[in-house]
Amino acid sequence: MQLLIEQPALSPDQLCILVSRHDQAADLRRALAQRGVPTRLVAQGDVLDSDAALVLQRLLDALAAP
After folding, report:
1. How far apart are CA 31 and CA 25, in angstroms?
2. pLDDT truncated to tens, each residue of the chain (66 aa)?
3. Measuring CA to CA, which residue among 8, 1, 52 is closest to residue 30?
4. CA 50 to each of CA 46, 53, 57, 58, 61: distance values in angstroms, whole numbers, following the listed order
5. Residue-wise over 28-54: b if at least 16 C-beta within 10 A, else e?
6. pLDDT score recorded for residue 64
7. How many helical (H) and strand (E) elements, i.e. helices and strands, does the chain have?
């Protein structure tokens, strides 16, 4: 949230906020709405189950144990 205040040139289409619980998303959406920042909720399941997460995990594993 502080980033939005400090960086007024930042636009909503440049943001992605990941949360672990739906109530966190609701709280963030409410806070952003109070500041006039439009939001869109996309709930497509667990991000950790994605192909991208698997690739990132492999990279982190390789960096941790070269």
Report:
1. 10
2. 565 556 566 676 777 888 878 888 889 889 988 988 888 887 767 777 888 999 999 999 999 998
3. 1
4. 7, 5, 11, 13, 17
5. bbeebeeeebeeeeeeeeeeeeeeeee
6. 94
7. 3, 0
Q: Indicate the residue type of 52.
A: A
Which residue pairs from 15-24 have beta carbons closer than 8 angstroms and sit at least 24 positions apart in sequence? Answer: 18/47
Pairwise CA distance, residues 56 & 66, whole Å? 15
4 C-beta neighbours (distance < 10 Å), count = 14
pTM of the model: 0.48
Distance CA 60, CA 51 (A): 14
